[in-house]
Amino acid sequence: MATYDHANTNYWSYGHQSITDVTGMGNLCGVREMQHTFNSCTALVEVDLSGLDPSSLEDLTYTFGGCSALVTIWVDSDWALPASGVSGFQTFYQCTSLVGGAGTTYASSRAGYQYMRIDGVGGAGYLTAKTS
To answer: Do residues 49 and 74 make contact, with C-beta atoms less than 8 angstroms apart?
Structure first.
């Protein structure tokens, strides 16, 4: 997959009940869309997005929707979504166990793509920066 200039991960793991953790996303290049990528993965506890370059992300609709057991999403310490051109309705819908690196806990009023940022860096977020 690393040889492609762009990819989308729409529905890749949608509804897979046995997935508990995800690693290796950093091997993907130019990910533009992550619609429903992990939606309804109810056993998913941890996702490691380190190495994934967020600069080409455009659509994060329901990326983690319904991941009620999800606690931690790891990213590189320089993670930042593009300043414009990003959307994502209910990116974190019903992620009731989710906690950002600075302690921000899930709230239904904070379920959009805007919270796909490192917690405490520029405000509340659900991502946790990896330290080397």
So the answer is: yes
For residue 95, give the 3-state DSSP assignment. coil
How does DSSP assign 66-84, residue by residue? T-TT--EEEE-TT----SS
Rg (CA), the chain: 13
Of 73, 2, 80, 85, the C-alpha closest to 37 is 73
Is the Cβ–Cβ distance between 84 and 57 less than 8 Å? no
pLDDT in tens, 92-113: 999 999 999 999 999 999 999 9
Q: What integer pLDDT is reported at residue 13 of this predicted model?
A: 95
pTM (2 decimals)?
0.94
Name the 3-class secondary structure at 10: coil
Strand partners, 87: 59
Gap between the Cα atoms of 16 and 52, Å rounded: 22
Task: Report the distance separating Cα 91 and Cα 114, nearest Å.
Answer: 9
